[in-house]
Every structure is written in C-alpha cells, then in structure tokens.
Amino acid sequence: MLGSEYLNWDVAVVGGGHAGCEAALASARLGLNVILFAIQLDSIAMMPCNPNIGGSSKGHLVRELDALGGEMAKNIDKTFIQSRMLNASKGPAVYSLRAQADKRRYAWEMRRTLENTRNLCIRQSEITDVKVDETGRVLGVYSESGAFYECGAVVLCTGTYLKARCLYGDVIHATGPNGQRASVGLSDSLKRLGIRLQRFKTGTPARIDRNSIDFSKMEIQNGDEPIVPFSFDTDPRSIQRAQVPCYLTYTNSLTHEVIRANLSRSPMYGGVIEGTGARYCPSIEDKVVRFADKERHQVFIEPEGEDTSEMYISGMSTSLPEDVQEAMYRSLPGMSGCRVTRNGYAIEYDCIDPTQLTTGLMFRDICGLFSAGQINGSSGYEEAAAQGIVAGINAARFVRNKPPIVIDRSEGYIGVLIDDLVIKGTNEPYRMLTSRAEYRLLLRQDNADIRLRPKGYGAGLVSREKYERLISKTREIEDEIERVRKTVIAPSTRINEFLRLNGSAETMTGVTLAELIKRPELSCSVCAVIDSGRPELPEDIREQVNIQIKYEGYIKRQAAQVEQFKRMEGRKLPDNINYAAISGLRLEARQKLEFHKPVNLGQAGRITGVSPADISVLIVFLTANKLQ
Ligand SMILES: Cc1cc2nc3c(=O)[nH]c(=O)nc-3n(C[C@H](O)[C@H](O)[C@H](O)COP(=O)(O)OP(=O)(O)OC[C@H]3O[C@@H](n4cnc5c(N)ncnc54)[C@H](O)[C@@H]3O)c2cc1C
User: Whose CA is nearest to atom 9 of ligand 1?
Assistant: First the structure.
C-alpha cells in the first residue's frame, strides 16, 4: 500500500477507554509524541456500565492516580452530579469518596482534555496487529487498513472489546459494549506473539426511563454537603453545587420467582457464555441463586446524567431475555409501570493472563509492549485508569531508556492492584477491595498525595509548584502534631466541664492535647474550644493531624510491618537462578518460581504455591551462595 509506513510515533496507545486516556496523557505530558487509537472516537472515556467513579477502595485508586498526576479525579470533579463519602461512620482507612457522573459530560470533558494536550493525536482506527522484531522488541502496530505505525513503545488498553460478544436471552451480537464494533484481529495477533489469553465476562443492567418510575415508593439518597473533591488540586469552594438524588429500592419474592422460573433461558445458566464472571459484581441471577436465603437485594436507581431521562439500575445486571427483564424490573416497588430504554446484557471478551507482565506493566518477553486496564483481567474504570497511568509513564521511560517506576504494596492500592495481577494472576475479573490491601491503615484516601506525589514529581508528571505545596503541607502537619504533643492542658473547672459535656473522663492532672485527641469521644475539632494556641489551618491538614494522633499506635505497628515487607522486597533474586537445582525446594515451588521469575523474595513469597518453608530454603541458598 502506497506510503504504508508513513507515520512514526514515540508511543502508540491502543484504546480510548479509562486506561488508554490516562496512558496517553501521561506519555504526552512527559513530552513524547503519542497517538491514541480508538475503534470509535465518540466512545472515548465511555462508561458502559455504572455511572459513577469511586466507592470502596476505588476512591483510593482515584486519589492515588491524582497524586501521581493523572486526570480521572479532575475530570469527575468537573462532571459529577452527586457526591458522597461512603463508610463515614467507620474508620478513616475505609472512608471512600464516590461521585455520580454525568456520563456524557464525563466522556466529553476527557476527550476535550485529550484534544487540547500537546504531542497527542487521537485517531479512529482499529488496530489489528502488533509488529515485533526477532529480538523480541516491539516495532509498531498495523491498522485494519494495513497502515503501519512505527513506534518506540505500544500500550494495549483494549478493555472489553477483544473478540467481544454481547448476550441477553437468545440474542448474541459480535459487538463491543453499547453496540460498538468489537476488536476482531488483535487477539489472534497477540496469540501469534505467544501471549496467553483468557476469556472473561461481565454484565450490565437495563436502563429505565425516569418518567416511568414512581420514586415516592423508594428511599431517596441525597449527596453530601459540603462536597469533598476527588482531586487534591481542586479548590473545594469551586465545586459546591446542586446535586441530583439517587434512590434505593429492593427486589422481592416476586422478582426472585420470575428469575428462578427463567434461569434456563439465561445464557449464563444455559451454558452459552464461556467467559468467567466477576465474583464481586454478580448478576441478579447469580445473587438469587447464590444467596437463595436472602429475601431481598438492594437496588440503587441512579441517574445517567442531567440531560437524559435514563436511569441505571445498580445491583440488577442481567443477561435474561427481554420479556423476563421487563417482568423482573416491574416487580420492584415504584417500578410497576417502568419503561426499559436499553436491555441489560452480558459481555464476554478476551483478556491476557497478567502474570506475563512485569510490575511496570511491560510484557516480560516483549520489550516495549505494555498493557493496562480490563485487558489485564481487572474490572472497573478506576482499576483501568490506575494501570493506565503506570503503563503510560513506563512506556515513556522505556522510550527514553529509563528504568520503570514501580509502586509497591506498601505505597498504594495501585501497587496492590498491579502486584496481585502480575504476581498472583487472576482467573476472574479482578475488582479492587480494601481487604486486599494488607497495609490499608497507611493507604488511606486522605494521604494519597503524601504517599505518591513525590513519585509523580520524580517521574516528571507533577509540577514543582505542586510538589513544593506538598512539602509545605507535610511540614505544617508535622509542626501541628508537634504542637499538640507539647501543649499541656492544665486541669480546671472549665476543662472538666468541657470533658463532661463531651462524655469524656475528667482529669485531675495536666494532660497533653494529643492525649485528649486520642480519646475516642474527642478529636482535633472537638478540642478546638479548649485549644487557645490553635493556628488557622486548612481542613485537609487538620484531618491528617487528627488521624495521625488518633491512630498513632495502629499506624506505628503497620509501619513496622512495612519495614519487614521492604526488607523482603529488598532481597533481590538474580534472574538466572536455576530453581530446579535448589534442593529442598518442593516441586510445585520450583515450577512456579521458574514460571513467574520473581525479582525479589517478597514477590516469591506471594506466588500461589510457594510456601514460607520454600522461602526459608531460598534464603539459605542466597546466603550460602553470597547472592545477597
Ligand atoms: C457491559 C459492561 C458491564 C460492565 N460492568 C462492570 C461492573 O459491573 N463493574 C465494574 O467494575 N466494571 C464493569 N465494567 C467494566 C468497565 O467498563 C471497564 O472496567 C472499564 O471500562 C475498563 O476500561 P478500559 O480502559 O480497560 O477499557 P474500555 O473502557 O473497555 O475501553 C477500551 C477502548 O479500547 C478501544 N479498542 C479496543 N480494541 C481496539 C483496537 N483493536 N484498536 C483500536 N481501539 C481499540 C475501544 O474503542 C475503547 O476505546 C463493565 C463493562 C461493560 C462493557
């Protein structure tokens, strides 16, 4: 084809979803020439499923992404229509921000940011092939027309499109989500490169016309006031605006009856669907079957946007036939006359086995080829975006011959996400949960900037001005903690009156402010009235002081565990170890270690099938051979 090899880019990003957008922005903002491909430009940053960003553990990922210099947090601060802090009655480790997005405005705003980013070109085209040279280094990609795009690095972010099929009842479409074209050729190209693929599935509920719902029969759920921003760079005063409500209703015995009576017509239960579904995002059919003893399941009715009457029926994703869906949704209180605008459906798609990747998200056997998002076996916009920024930064660093950045499990949920995927692998869509993060008391959403902004600055994505702002914030926190530790409150009638009024024990001796703040019934803000030396400080600094004082003991203990973790991560494993020759290692461990090729003892210890006893054998081997 004339001039087929006419375009040369530093980085090519295949996919304009949540991973692709972050990857492309990161590489371009680091000064590289980047081209982003999407099968449909109008589907850039599309939210094919739930109309919200954040929630339990996902809010942490969005904050960490923002700390590193990513875009998702800013984009949702511009386009949210409701915002709530989940788990506010629990401890700060599980506080999670969640915002309802106006889906169309979210996608539109992200596209605008891409279009206004220097060095970044977006292009509507399906990539069908990845070219790799005989040394195993990526050379570029081919489009469906046969055009060849030469590039220094490629980031695959193809989401739920690879060989996608959408199913409900007997209806099967070989399409991507929302009727988008599926990606056909690329799966075979990846297989030819020796990349192992797996087949996963996920699902979405129907959309219902709000004008056909009787909300008086549901519980209203309003947003929080004041509204807390996702981004550390968003001025909270700039986002205080009117919010739209969500509603809570429940399934009932009639709903469950309709579902049970038609299970055989579900492609999931009819054996038509091959892909493995998400344990933590079950369809309503799965819930009724797996939790048969439950009388009802919560269903949240969420607006898809301000300029549309479509409502998302959260908690009822399904692939049952159209008529069954109609009957099932109409059985809910307030929905007896509801009108379906789009049917729920299941989608199955190809994704890779992520154990083929390094913790920098590059394929271990193909230099310069990176992968991020749903293609890596994860599920969720936030999980995708978090991987996207890491892959985007590392693709840029690869082109510049710099070592990759790696976020480990003690630094962030992003580190837990990537480490779980590439070390342990996954045989179902992987969704982030707070329980996955063993150091979650340190990995709170409120301190994501303190934990990761230095890494974003080091990578070149965070400006000096923002970094210096963080340094002065950290200093102010330390100074204030020092002050409350040194401030002694002398016992007096007024102080004991204050303590009694707050249900706290009176004191006969001097007590430091820090000791008072530590009391469960007291806090920095409660003690403000007895704290005459209290300086004017921003709310986010007060929050840090309060948490670090109140949970000091837990934080110290977890920090000691992190020290132990870092020591194990620090014991490097040479990549030419012959595990088969190490006597004392069990056969399964030898095979798994040979397959995964962990880079350090910590990673080795997290591989399924490698026991603590095997790790002891390895330590003896390393010491005896002076390998560490
Ligand atoms: C029906 C459905 C239900 C879902 N349900 C849930 C859920 O319940 N919970 C949850 O957490 N997540 C759910 N998700 C997943 C969520 O949508 C994804 O996690 C998220 O969108 C993944 O982002 P991504 O960037 O990896 O990929 P996507 O957002 O899927 O974007 C992929 C991009 O790649 C492009 N592309 C693909 N192949 C090619 C190619 N060969 N050439 C060029 N461009 C290409 C596409 O055009 C698109 O722009 C669901 C998704 C769908 C479709």
Answer: 380
The alpha carbon of 356 and the centre of ligand 1 are apart by a number of angstroms equal to 21
CATH code for position 434: 3.50.50.60
Q: Using one digit for the tens of pLDDT, what is the confidence trace for 516-552?
A: 999 999 999 999 999 999 999 999 999 999 999 999 9
Regarding the beta carbon of 379 and ligand 1, being less than 6 Å apart is answered yes
Gap between the Cα atoms of 310 and 313, Å rounded: 10
* Coil/strand/helix, residue 359: coil
* Segment 42-54 mean pLDDT: 96
C-alpha–C-alpha distance, residues 56 and 486, integer Å:
36
Rounded distance between C-alpha atoms, residue 44 and residue 386, angstroms: 17
Mean pLDDT of 304-329: 97
Q: Which of 285, 381, 430, 433 to mutate to test the pocket of ligand 1 (most atoms within 8 A of CB)?
A: 381
For the chain, how many structural domains are there in total? 4
Residue of 14, 202, 204, 430 best suited for mutating to test ligand 1, as the one with most atoms within 8 Å of CB: 202
Q: Is there an atom of ligand 1 within 6 Å of 17 CB? A: yes
- If asked whether residues 481 and 386 sit together in one domain, one would say no
Residue of 157, 188, 389, 428 to test ligand 1 pocket, by largest number of atoms within 8 Å of CB: 157
Q: Report how far ligand 1's centroid is from the alpha carbon of 374 (Å).
A: 6
pLDDT band at residue 628, thresholds of 50, 70 and 90?
low
Q: Helix crossing, 464-486 with 539-550: angle to 10°?
A: 50
Ligand 1 atom at minimum distance from 162 CA:
38
Asked whether residue 515 is domain-assigned, the answer is yes
526 close to ligand 1 (CB < 6 Angstrom): no
Q: Counting atoms of ligand 1 from 1, which one is nearest the CA of 317?
A: 8
Same domain, 594 and 484: no
CA of 465 to the centre of ligand 1 (A): 35
Exposed/middle/buried for residue 295 (C-beta within 10 Å: 0-12, 13-18, 19+): exposed
pLDDT above 50 (res 71): yes
What digits encode the pLDDT tens for the residues 432-448?
Answer: 999 999 999 999 999 99
Ligand 1 centroid distance, CA of 47 (Å): 8
Of 256, 467, 429, nearest in space to 346 by CA: 429
Neighbour count for residue 437 (Cβ, 10 Å) = 22
**Of 347, 327, 351, nearest in space to 337 by CA:** 327
Residues 384, 157: Cα–Cα separation, whole Å: 8
Tell me the two tokens of residue 428. Answer: 């179902």
Residue 51 beta carbon below 6 angstroms from any ligand 1 atom: no
Instruction: Confirm whether 452 is domain-assigned.
Output: no
Q: Are strands 7-14 and 34-38 parallel, antiparallel or unpaired?
A: parallel
In a domain, residue 453? The reply is no
Residue 426 in any domain: the answer is yes
Same domain for 74 and 53: yes
User: What distances in angstroms separate CA 362 from CA 34, 262, 366, one per listed residue?
Assistant: 17, 44, 8
DSSP string, 459-483: HT-S-HHHHHHHHHHHHHHHHHHHH
Ligand 1 centroid–CA 475 distance in Å is: 41
Ligand 1: atom nearest CA of 46 is 29
C-alpha of residue 158 to centroid of ligand 1, in Å: 7
3-state secondary structure of 538: coil
